[in-house]
Amino acid sequence: MEIKLVKKVLAAHDALAGEIRAELSQKRIYCVNIMSSPGAGKTTLLERTLAGLAGELRAGVIEGDITTTNDADRIARYGTPVAQINTEPFGGDCHVGANFVKTALGELPLDSLDLLIIENVGNLVCPAEFDLGEDDKVVVFSITEGEDKPLKYPLMFRKSSACVVNKLDLAPHLDVDTQTIRANVENVNPKIRIFQLSAKTGEGLDPWLDWLRERVKAKRG
Ligand SMILES: Nc1nc2c(ncn2[C@@H]2O[C@H](COP(=O)(O)OP(=O)(O)O)[C@@H](O)[C@H]2O)c(=O)[nH]1
Ligand SMILES: [Mg+2]
């Protein structure tokens, strides 16, 4: 009985994700869902990305957090349309659900966007389980998290088209081997595209921006 109910809820969720995908496709908006542990650098990467693509691509952002509007406030400074989702009033979900995205879409000027970025709730497990109608999932992984985490939390890496290995500027101060991180990410997903960069300094950002430009262009047709 209980299992049937869970199946029904998940089917309803996936149907909603399908509606979102259809709506975004019809409007030719490329959508990327950015996921990571708390603090890996999603918002900092977004800030760099928005600055790097300013005047070139029209971006909108959906900010997912359990509570606070901190990240939406950071993004709004770039003049980017942003919709904040807080999950706390609805049980404090550890991920963004398709229902939240559907509501947030109503707050964004979709007819004037090329690119929609969803910053998911900080969590290395749950967000990977949900289809949001996005074109790509991307995992941000900070080199401070430990080389073995892609092996221990493989689902997010498996589901992602790209992995941004962040905080490269800290490498000289840490006992961490970035090649081992790379090998571990590729071990769980041999097809994943890996970008090594520092969202703080901007080092290594260009290949990531180029990848996004290509994806947006492909969606525009
Ligand atoms: N040294 C360093 N710190 C970073 C980098 N990217 C983000 N941070 C810092 O990490 C903390 C969390 O970043 P934030 O973007 O809020 O992470 P989020 O929780 O994933 O959105 C902040 O103090 C950032 O300044 C980076 O590339 N290098
Ligand atoms: Mg954030």
Walk me through this protein's architecture:
By secondary structure, this protein is of the alpha/beta class. The chain has a single domain (2-220), classed as Rossmann fold. It contains eight helices and seven strands. A seven-stranded parallel sheet has the order 3-2-4-1-5-6-7, sandwiched between helices. Helix 1 (2-26) runs parallel beside helix 4 (98-105). The model has no long low-confidence stretch (mean pLDDT 96). The structure holds guanosine-5'-diphosphate (GDP) and magnesium ion. Magnesium ion binds next to helix 2.
Give the arrangement of secondary structure elements.
Blueprint: H1 2-26, E1 30-35, H2 42-53, E2 59-65, H3 70-76, E3 82-86, H4 98-105, E4 115-119, E5 136-142, H5 149-152, H6 154-159, E6 162-166, H7 178-188, E7 193-196, H8 205-220
Features:
221 residues; Rossmann fold; seven-stranded parallel beta sheet; 8 helices; 7 strands; 40% helix; 18% strand; globular; binds guanosine-5'-diphosphate; binds magnesium ion
In summary, what is this structure?
The chain is of the alpha/beta class and 221 residues long. The chain contains 8 helices and 7 strands; from the N terminus they run αβαβαβαββααβαβα.
**Helical proportion, percent range:** 40-55%
Instruction: Return Rg in Å.
Output: 17 Å
Average of the residue pLDDT scores: 96
What is the H/E string?
A: HEHEHEHEEHHEHEH
Tell me which CATH architecture applies here. 3-Layer(aba) Sandwich
The fraction of residues in strands falls at 15-25%
What can be said about the biggest beta sheet?
7 strands, parallel
SS class: alpha/beta
- Count of distinct strands: 7
